[in-house]
Amino acid sequence: MENDRAMAEAALTLDEVPREELESAVIRFAGDSGDGMQLTGGRFTETTALAGNDLTTFPDFPAEIRAPIGTTYGVSAFQINFGSRNVMTSGDLPDVLVCMNPAALKVNLSELREGGLVIVDTGTFTDKNLQKAGYEANPLDDDSLSRYRVMAIDISKLTLEAVKECEVSKKEGLRAKNLWTLGLIYWMYDRDVAATVEWLGTKFKKLPNIAAANIACLKAGHAFGETAELPDGALVYEIKPATFRPGLYRTVTGTEALAWGLVAGTQLAGLKLVFSSYPITPASTVLHVLSRLKAYDVVTFQAEDEIAAAGAAIGASYAGALGVTSSSGPGVALKTEALGLAITAELPLILINSQRAGPSTGMPTKTEQSDLYLAVYGRNADAPLVVLAARSSAEAFDVAIEAVRLATRYMTPVVVLSDTFIANAAEPWRLPDVGSLEPFPVAFHTDAEGFQPYRRDEETLARRWVKPGTPGLEHRIGGLEKDYTTGNVSYDPENHQRMTDVRHEKIARIADDIPEQEVDQGPVQGPLAVVGWGSTYGPISRAVERSREAGISVSHIHLRYLNPLPRNLGDLLAGFDKVLVPEMNMGQLTTVLRSRYLVPAESLSKVTGKPFKIAEIMDAIRAHSEA
Q1: Whether 336 contacts 349, CB under 8 Å
Q2: DSSP letter for each residue of 262-300
Q3: Alpha carbon distances (Å) from 450 to 124, 444, 485
Q4: Torsion angle of alpha carbons 452, 458, 462, 464, nearest 10°?
Q5: Of 190, 430, 479, 537, which is the most buried if we count CB atoms within 10 A?
Q6: Are 219 and 183 in contact (CB under 8 A)?
Q7: In degrees, to the nearest 5, what angle opens at C-alpha 114 toward C-alphas 111 and 118?
Q8: 598 vs 405, 569, 571, 604, CA distance in Å?
């Protein structure tokens, strides 16, 4: 009887194998830069969103623009964590690793969870490619993959078979092997191919042979799953839809959300948006998004260098628009002189800083949070400005609107800190009711009687904003110190003291115009608070949640406003015995909190170019709780 049952199970095709229900799964697609891993991940993301799952993605690009094909320097990866529950990170360790060549396996295998499934294209495991990846022997032929389940498929060969009738060259056919792999993964996780078929038809509308080849490969990969026999332990899965608040959703990256938030903010302020920047990874895509939004009173300008881009944005603000610029890494350092000019001229300006690993050119495509010092302190002399940080891709929309509000209300530059992870990561975003957003219209000064360019609003200490050319309101501003009353150039020592004090006080007063800091989860006082900012929100939140479920008393506090800090933050932190600060830097917020509030803040630093894992923060929480 048992033998009969075993024979019957062995005869089952994949479509007859019962699907295992999972709460969530993490998949990583990895291959050469030319293997289309970002496209593959993007299509899987869209299909997963349509299936109703919550998700977070992590595109991981190689830093080398044209690394030699087949080398570890050219490996591109895309990771997605999706599930039927609230998903807050891109996942600690992949459950499935798809490797299109030996180099992808070499770079990514160490992060696959033990017992996870690795899918490899055996057609690329040639002696030459193995040598390029640094393998002395073929890992498919020894026991180096014994800790994992392996699905070794000659994807290259099966791809060429799938496109035989499509009248494409061998090279064109092989370029579709990512779609073959995507079809297989769609089948494994019960995804519908229809949306991707439609997308391919639209994308390659003018190249019908290419469209047909890609669609054929997608369907062939799906069919392979239905007919091939499973390797030992490889299952097929079902992940039910997540529960969302009612509304209309779409996936959004941080770059898109920031761009749309800037447009929404300037519309709420009644201003034209003038965006000027210079291309640099990963900030360049803000310009790409905004350049398609000219219908919303948006002007975009690509300058010849970083300083020119910032100068053009300042000029736009002087003319009565809102000047916005964007950069990353060394490009932000180049803009600091212009920020000082905007501070002393007291003009609204927004700088989007998509942080990346450094210093200097560093690792351009890897994530880091190491520009906090630069944002808060990084200018000559005492030059205070506003610093905000988005905690997720979706929240970047609201942060951008708030940046516009504060910049225009207080006539000040605002630095918005994003990072490589937020810029590129996607997550579901509930489209806001734009009509419910509260306007904050800008009122330009037009009364010539008694006008002085640096006369201030008594509440905000902001000087008046006057469009140049307004009759009777001719005035001069610039980088030299100005007389407190007249705005004329002044070298008087006491006047400089007074102007420095008022610029400082103007920013300090913003603390009364922003929300008090709240505890994200956990008690408002206790033995341990984990404090974060920016993209560490997801892993911190999940780590604190799991630690609390394990009986550890710990709270999570996450900061959006980094300068000025919320007015109640010092008292809030004083209620905790210990403060742990996970940061993707060497302890910058830790230093700020210690200096401002004299609290026993300790840093948990990570500067690998990759986001925190939940487990890393949980280990630190456990260690501090047991100490």
Answers
A1: no
A2: HHHHHHHHT--EEEEE---TTTHHHHHHHTT-GGGTEEE
A3: 77, 16, 11
A4: -30
A5: 537
A6: yes
A7: 70
A8: 31, 12, 11, 18
What dihedral do alpha carbons 178, 180, 182, 187 form, nearest 10°? -170
At 11-57, the pLDDT tens digits run: 334 445 578 899 999 999 999 988 999 999 999 999 999 999 999 99
Closest CA to 316 of 277, 259, 374, 260: 277
**Mode of pairing for the β-strands spanning 96-99 and 273-277:** unpaired
Query: Which amino acid is located at 560 in the chain?
Result: R
433 CB-near residues (< 8 Å, 6+ apart): none
pLDDT in tens, 323-381: 999 999 999 999 999 999 999 999 999 999 999 999 999 999 999 999 999 999 999 99
Residue 280: name the closest of 333, 313, 326, 312 by CA. Answer: 326
Percent above pLDDT 90 for the chain: 90
- Nearest one of 59, 55, 47 to 26, comparing CA atoms: 55
Residues with Cβ < 8 Å from 501, sequence gap 6 or more?
Answer: none
Residue 500 burial by CB count (10 A; 0-12/13-18/19+): exposed, middle or buried? middle
Residues in the chain: 627
- Residue in the structure block whose two tokens are 């034209």: 272
Q: Which tokens go with 493? A: 């020592």
- Report the first-to-last Cα separation within the chain, whole angstroms: 58
Global pTM reads 0.94
Amino acid at 379: R
Single-letter code of the amino acid located at 277? S
Q: How would you label 385-396 residue by residue, b for 16+ Cβ within 10 Å and e otherwise?
A: bbbbbbbbbbbb
Give which of 483, 460, 621, 458 is closest to 555, Cα–Cα. 621
Nearest C-alpha neighbor of 395 from the set 425, 370, 367: 425
Tokens of 135: 């393998």
On the CB side of 588, CA atoms within 13 Å amount to 19
CA 218 – CA 505 distance, rounded (Å): 61
CB atoms within 10 A of CB 5: 9
Distance between CA atoms of residues 115 and 95, nearest Å: 8
DSSP 293-329: -GGGTEEEEE-SSHHHHHHHHHHHHHTTSEEEEEE-T
Spatial CB neighbours of 462, under 8 Å, sequence gap ≥ 6? 346, 409, 410, 411, 412, 456, 506
Cβ pair 591, 579 in contact under 8 A: no
Which of 216, 183, 190 lies closest to 50 in space, CA to CA?
190
Strands 426-430 and 601-605, bridge-based pairing: unpaired
**Structure-block tokens of residue 114:** 């033990």
DSSP-derived secondary structure letter, 114: T
